[in-house]
């Protein structure tokens, strides 16, 4: 079994998970991490005992022993330049979604990886979720019969307001929608998707238990409309980019 040296660029929520996993993997010989937040850098370094802990990701790319890097940096505007630099440095790359903010940028990254014979993939973590595997098996063996309609809902309970880092999808659960919207627009977003759902809870009155597997999660519907209107109005006061209602929001299609 051949071990390799790995770098993790960006050790926030997702990057921190990747760093700890890499540190515990028998396939990783040495781990290097890069993080712009000094406190978070020290925290993850204490958990992973890396060969290198730096605030400058270029130090990782300059190390010829590092064969692969995982990029989990925010805001999303950093994905293209960081990945381009890593590929041009000869590193295999696992990049947190999105790949880039424009199709031209994404095509350029793919072209560089193919030209240099490097592995380049996007971290679609749910691809390996056992729930998805169970659904696929149940469809294949006929357990579910012939599907005529599918509704997929993923409920994430972490606090969005504490974790959001310039993401283009904006939830009304955020405590400072104006400030976050302004930061998103300043980061170069062409549009802001707002509203979608609010954290809530629904009860099955027959079975007398919560409808959602995690007890509570994202709920939408007509009752959300006054909240959605307020969020869209607040965001429109501070940004000039289009605001789009998404998914099952009562404002779906609003621009």
Number of domains: 2
- Inertia-based shape: globular
Number of helices: 9
SS elements, strand count: 13
The main pleated sheet reads as: 6 strands, parallel
Mean pLDDT: 82
Strand content: 15-25%
**CATH fold title of the largest domain:** Rossmann fold
- Helix-strand topology string: EHEHEHEHEHEHHEHEEEEEHE
CATH architecture name of the largest domain: 3-Layer(aba) Sandwich
Q: Give the CATH level 1 class of the largest domain.
A: Alpha Beta
| Uncertain residue ranges | 156-168, 249-255
Q: CATH superfamily of the largest domain, called what?
A: NAD(P)-binding Rossmann-like Domain
Q: Biggest sheet: strands side by side, in what order? A: 3-2-1-4-5-6
What separation lies between the terminal Cα atoms?
54 Å
Give the radius of gyration: 21 Å
Oligomeric status:
single chain
Task: Indicate the structural class.
Answer: alpha/beta
Percent helix range: 25-40%
Tell me about this structure:
It is built from 9 helices and 13 strands. With 255 residues, the chain is an alpha/beta fold. It has 2 domains: 123 residues, Rossmann fold (3-Layer(aba) Sandwich), CATH 3.40.50; 93 residues, no CATH class. A 6-stranded parallel sheet has the order 3-2-1-4-5-6, sandwiched between helices. Helix 1 links the parallel strand 1 and strand 2. Helix 4 packs parallel to helix 5. The radius of gyration is 21 Å and the shape is globular.
């Amino acid at each position: 079994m051949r071990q390799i040296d790995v770098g993790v660029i960006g050790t926030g929520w997702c990057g921190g998970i990747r760093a700890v996993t890499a540190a515990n993997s028998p396939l990783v010989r040495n781990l290097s991490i890069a993080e712009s937040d000094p406190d978070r850098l020290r925290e993850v370094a204490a958990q992973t005992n890396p060969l290198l802990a730096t605030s400058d990701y270029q130090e990782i790319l300059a190390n010829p022993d590092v064969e692969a890097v995982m990029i989990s940096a925010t805001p999303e505007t950093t994905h293209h330049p960081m990945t381009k630099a890593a590929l041009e440095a000869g590193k295999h790359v696992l990049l947190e979604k999105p790949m880039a903010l424009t199709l031209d940028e994404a095509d350029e990254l793919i072209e560089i990886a193919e030209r240099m014979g490097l592995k380049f993939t996007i971290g679609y973590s749910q691809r390996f979720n056992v729930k998805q595997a169970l659904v696929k098996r149940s469809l294949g063996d006929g357990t579910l019969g012939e599907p005529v309609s599918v509704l997929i809902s993923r409920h994430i309970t972490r606090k969005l307001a504490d974790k959001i880092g310039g993401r283009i999808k904006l939830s009304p659960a955020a405590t400072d929608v104006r400030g976050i919207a302004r930061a998103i627009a300043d980061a170069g977003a062409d549009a802001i998707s707002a509203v979608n759902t609010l954290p809530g809870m629904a009860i099955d009155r027959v079975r007398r238990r919560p409808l959602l597997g995690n007890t509570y999660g994202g709920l939408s519907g007509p009752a959300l409309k006054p909240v959605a209107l307020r969020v869209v109005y607040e965001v429109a006061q501070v940004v000039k980019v289009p605001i789009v209602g998404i998914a099952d929001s009562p404002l779906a299609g609003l621009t």
